[in-house]
Amino acid sequence: MSSSDQLGFSFRPADRRVWTVRDLVVAVRTHIEREYSDIWVEGEISNFRAHDSGHLYFTLKDQNAQIKAVMFRSQARLLRFRPENGMQVVGRGRVTIYEDRGELQISAEYLEPKGAGALQVAFEQLKAKLEAEGLFDAARKKPIPTLPRRIGIVTSPQAAALRDILNVLRRRHDTAGILIFPAQVQGEAAPLEVSAGIRYFNKARNVDVIIMARGGGSAEDLAAFNHEGLARAVAASEIPVISAIGHETDFTIIDFVADLRAPTPSAAAELVIRSRQEVEEQAEGLRQRLARAMRYRLLMGRQALTELARHGAFAYMMELINQRQQKLDDLLYRLERSQRQM
Fold first, then answer.
1. What is the Cα–Cα distance from 30 to 154, expressed in whole angstroms?
2. Is pLDDT at 10 greater than 70 in this prediction?
3. What is the β-pairing status of strands 260-261 and 241-245?
4. Across 62-164, where does the E strand assignment appear?
5. What would the mean pLDDT of 40-51 be, rounded to a whole number?
6. Which candidate, 37, 104, 101, places its Cα nearest to that of 69?
7. Rounded to two decimals, what is the model's pTM?
């Protein structure tokens, strides 16, 4: 329907579209998600909340603005660190709208701490947590047996670290029994497999000491040994555990929990059992010490006896014995003479 104004111009009124709230929110959400489907954002975490479902809810803010964010369980479980309030992070995700409240939010797919890497932050967080629980206390560490009859090794059968350990053990004391539990020492499955090895040896009770070993690598390569579950398995072990992870400069959570840290796998083999030569030398040293102790005791006994012999009471007693002996001899002589005269 058209209308005319006073000047005779005709015009058609614009159609009025009335949106439902939901339709409007959906339309805006579709537009925003299309425009901001892959963005990076930096901010400070606040109002952090980890739900029982595994989803993470928090706010990212700076000095001038803030925006809500969510990280769903499938992505949250891949995080190498635990987000905390006040932490500066860089995140990647997409901008969307939570329809039920019409709120703008970021659906985060990746988070990393700003500055320090995620692995380092995760390491420091777990280290502080376990230390507060007393898992690093020296009082709870078990002594390593001097001459274990059997040694359990948890490592990859293809690892160079295993060959190093076996070569050293063969050279130092080839009579020791060795049992190997094959396990991955890198990747997501590694913590579970190494933990299974620790539990197996504790259940079977067929070794006197356990060595966990792998060679050197990057922080990502060694990340399996910064796993909380593995750390607790080591702490719960009733059999002494030696950690031999990486190089001398590499430190993992397992190094702090284990009963003894070896700087390298080869050093673990040096520490776990003394060489045959050392044992024989110690045995010879003990034999010589025993012989000297026996000679000393005999000498002291002889001196004590000599001093007693010189004592006045002992001399008087010997004099009485001699007098009695002399009197007995005299009586025997008189008896024999009387018998001859009869």
1. 52
2. no
3. parallel
4. 66-71, 88-98, 103-113, 150-155
5. 90
6. 104
7. 0.59
Residue type at position 198: I
Which two structure tokens, joined as six digits, stand for 298? 């005999």
Residues in the chain: 342
Task: Please say whether the dihedral angle defined by the alpha carbons of residues 71, 77, 80 and 83, taken in this order, is positive or negative.
Answer: positive
Phi, psi of 313 (to 5 degrees): -65, -40
Element (H, E) at 275: none
Distance separating alpha carbons of residues 194 and 230, to the nearest angstrom: 7
User: For a pLDDT cut of 70, what percent of the chain falls above it?
Assistant: 90
Instruction: State the sign of the Cα–Cα–Cα–Cα dihedral 83, 88, 93, 95.
Output: positive
| Architecture in CATH for domain 21-116 | Beta Barrel (2.40)
Instruction: Check the CA dihedral 267-271-274-278 and report its sign.
Output: positive
pLDDT at residue 196, as a whole number:
95
**Angstrom distance (rounded) from CA 186 to CA 165:** 19
Q: What is the β-pairing status of strands 177-182 and 150-155?
A: parallel
**pLDDT above 70 (res 313):** no
Residue 174 has pLDDT above 90, yes or no: no
Structure tokens at 277: 């030569």
What is the H or E stretch that residue 252 is in? none
- Alpha carbons within 13 angstroms on the beta-carbon side of residue 289 total 6
> Pick from 281, 283, 260, 284: which is nearest to 272 by CA?
260
Nearest alpha-carbon partner for 111 in 177, 175, 43, 158: 43
CA distance linking residue 240 with residue 210, whole number of Å: 6
CATH class of residue range 132-274? alpha beta
Please compute the mean of the pLDDT values over residues 279-293 and round it to a whole number: 81
CB–CB of 67/105 below 8 Å?
yes
Cα Rg, the chain, nearest whole Å: 42
Tokens of 273: 């059992």
% the chain with pLDDT above 90: 31
Q: What is the DSSP string of 66-84?
A: EEEEEE-HHHHTT-SS---
